[in-house]
TrEMBL record:
Residues 264-479 form the Histidine kinase domain. It catalyses: ATP + protein L-histidine = ADP + protein N-phospho-L-histidine. One of its GO terms (molecular function) is kinase activity. It comes from the Bacteria. This is histidine kinase. InterPro entries: HATPase_C_sf (IPR036890), HATPase_dom (IPR003594), His_kinase_dom (IPR005467), HisK_dim/P_dom (IPR003661), HisK_dim/P_sf (IPR036097), Sensor_HK_Regulatory (IPR050736), Sig_transdc_His_kin-like_C (IPR004358). Keywords: Kinase, Membrane, Phosphoprotein, Transferase, Transmembrane, Transmembrane helix, Two-component regulatory system. It comes from Parabacteroides hominis.
Amino acid sequence: MKTRLRFKIIATLICLSLAGLLISQGYWLKGLYVSNKKSTWEKIEESMRMADYMELFLRLDSLSQNNYHDEISPKISISRDTDWEDKKDSLSQDQTISSPPGTTVQYIAAAQTLKEYLQMISTMERGVQIMMHQKIDSLLPIDYTQYKNLLQIELQKRGIAAPFVLQVIRQGATDSVIYTGGDSIYRKQPWKNMVCFTHTIEPEQYYYSLKLPSPDRIVFRQMAGILTSSFLLIVIILIAFIYLLYTILRQKTIEELKTDFTNNMTHELKTPISVAYAANDVLLNYSDTTNEKQKKYLNIVREQLNHLSGLVEQILTLSVENRNTFRLRPEPILVLELLIPLIEQFKLKTDRPINLTTEIPAKLVVTADRTHLYNMLSNLIGNAIKYSGEKPCRVTIKGAVSPKETVLSVTDEGIGISETNLKRIFDKFYRVPNGNLHDVKGFGLGLYYVHDMMSKHGGSVTVKSQPGKGSTFSLHFKN
């Protein structure tokens, strides 16, 4: 896989992950906001109700101290709720629970669920609170300033520290404000997007009106810790993402520089290798003054030059293959015609007897890039010879055609490959450990090249091997 493609895949995956994180974080924060907003509204309503209770009880205590207790207790009665009364007809007699002696209230078991039961209790409680207002207000007027102070305390208990304006509004043909207290700034310039809550003092008479600034401001202030931590987390992830992209780009640049250096170095090496090879060939074959000892050393030099030339060609091939401009030039190739000169070349440059046999149909044709097919077969035959061990070197090259594919295989009777190493032999720079065998040279690029080129041809390479019995490498070309 090309470096540029890998970079695009990594960048895309990171962007998708970051987008997914932001979406999930936003969805979670939105749900938390809705939940906190609902909870805040309930706390405000509860604060108004509790402050009203506290103000009532303070006035009731004051009346009790002034001997008004006898006037209050006998005259407070609790009547049945009209909504409950409507439900009486649909209930059986055993659902009506009689009140304790001395009271005038009947508790009707109209609630079929827990929610209805809680609503019934809340309605009863609200009725008691209104009736207490009716009696206590007739004896001692409401202290609005005290209610405002109690309301502020209740709001602060519930974590709602925001400016507010409290008004008492009398209902009628035209509602009139009979009390205003709280934030003085509001009186000069009303808040934008303010929210208003009401709490009835006496039905159809007057009620408390509580005004607060934008509800979002209150909720966001409560969520400040979560929002700050979420923001910091996103910033850290963004910084890590940018740094990762910077590192990848830097590594990409380094790899490109390395590739350019390899290309230039190998191209420069080809010239002195060619000159040294030509000079060595002249001294070895066309000089009458060369003795046997000199020929021996010249042969060694030629072998090493051949080895070095092969390595340079292999590195060049891999370098070209990794370029973006790399393109295959497939053409119909008569396999036997390509193999004959390749086999002769190996017989000439190998310093040991080898038996290379071919079982290729005379008209077997493969559609492939001629240069790369030549290099792949050369790598496989070269490996078969190198790893033949101490046995006589026998290499068989076969070809077979089926409706789906054409297979070219190279079989040797050498040292073989263990099952553990078979999994990695096509990895770049991987070489099979050979114990004390040090005479096999190479960099582990040959099989990697074969595997990569077969992949580019749309085919595959497979291997079967048994330690001590040899190996078979097969090239599979799709028809």
